[in-house]
Amino acid sequence: MKSALPKILHPLGGKPMVGHALAAARELDPGQVAVVIRHERELVAEAVGQLDPAAILVDQDDVPGTGRAVQCALAALDAKAQAAAAAAGLADGEVVGDGVDGSVVVVAGDVPLLDGATLGQLLAAHHADGNAVTILTTEVDDATGYGRIVREKDTGDVLEIVEHKDATADQLEIREINSSVYVFDAATLRRGLGGLDSKNAQGEVYLTDVVAFARAEGLHVRALLADDPMLVEGVNDRVALSVLAREMNRRVVEEWQRAGVTVQDPATTWIDVDVELAPDVTLLPNTQLKGATVVATGATIGPDTTLTDVEVGVGATVVRTHGSLAVIGEGASVGPFAYLRPGTTLGRKGKIGTFVETKNAEIGEGSKVPHLSYVGDATIGEHSNIGAASVTVNYDGVHKHRTVIGSHARTGADNMFVAPVSVGDGAYTAAGSVIRRDVPAGALGVTAGQQRNIEGWVARRRPGTPAADAAAAASGTTPGLGDQAQRQLAEHNAAGAPVAPQAAAVQAEADQVPAGGADKEGKTH
């Protein structure tokens, strides 16, 4: 992979490759799962511990090969079984057995499309035929690099598996290949592993040599041919990873379509394997649903939306939005161009609008943050409206503080709420206010001073600019003249023209009314 990340930890479909292998194995309801690790042990061990805490971690030593990996795994499983038997108590004369019995399934960690249903079919065939070894195989057009399945002509039983580098010219023509997925009888596997060596072209201990051992003992070795080669396709580089990721996504999307989900453009829609969708969900182009995202019936997601671990309620709409670890309520609307950070909860029929960012915010039923705002570490009650360009100032450089805005509140545009601060139920705040103190229920919070106009400032301080020319044209004066010249020109014009009536100057009262006033719905402008 040419990567610092171990191959089996490279993700597709929302999980690392080894996560898909573990999920498929668990569908068999096994008595025990063992994962053999070697390269970048700590990274793989940590990942497996998170994906499947019950799995046994088995360290492979420096001896290479799949056979050695299974030797180490079986030894660990046998020791665990013997310890359990001893702990349960033994009757007089009874001795601890060899270890595990029954069937042992071996799965490669880099075959991500292999599913539990296919493993179940393989296990059922193994039991039905009474096999010592059952191999999952498939046929491919180009078998380069794969082990070839050599069958007995009359019975179709497997004679041997020959690795590519050890194959003869005739064997290289065989198109049926080994998928590295097996079911072994535990006793056969134990005896066969005991006689393995590394006398081959690669100097490795091959698990495939157990097949030859079983044949030598006269036991049944058969193969189950998988009709779909992609199920057993392995990953050896990033090109293969991307091919299998797209194929996995195609299958997931198709499965949801058949379950009643509308996917307008499957080619640009990506859905992780753990996502849950209800019937009548609509996904528009360029939508990505990741992690454990859940979307309820009637919701519409997209276009151009990425949601990770987000819960979307019935009938909600989410447009051109990036969100993670958030909850969107029934009938709510989000976007376009919204950013929902972790901890965001939007109530029923609420709204998070255009260019709005939220984080650790609880927004109640019917409340709206329509545009150009940041709401972080905040609680907003029900049916409140937050004016445009509002910010909850939650960070003092050391600690985060919370803003609380009550129900049926109306806050003005361009407000700063300096936390910790609260605005009571039914309260208003004026546009342009910096709210530093609590606003009681039903009160009006105002911090803006009275407006003062300085006449002629542009002509005096910015002469010769386009602004000065425009102001002069609007007032009927000539740009570039001084005050005395302006008066003389005015007197000259007045001598030959009627005198214009003088406009009375009226001073507006500043009665702590919000700038722009409020409309009937209580929204400030």
Tell me briefly what this model is.
Helix 6 (186-194) crosses helix 7 (209-216).
Description of the molecule:
By secondary structure, the chain is an alpha/beta fold. It is 24% helix and 25% strand. The chain is built from eleven helices and 36 strands. The strands form seven sheets. It has a 19-stranded parallel beta sheet that branches. The two termini are 57 Å apart. Residues 497-520 have low confidence and may be disordered.
Distance between the termini: 57 Å
User: What's the β-strand tally?
Assistant: 36
Shape: elongated
Which value, in Å, is the CA radius of gyration?
37 Å
Query: What's the rounded overall pLDDT mean?
Result: 90
Structural class by helix and strand composition: alpha/beta
Low-confidence segments, given as residue ranges, are 497-520
What labels describe this entry?
single chain, about 525 residues, alpha/beta, 19-stranded parallel beta sheet, 4-stranded mixed beta sheet, 11 helices, about 25% helix, elongated
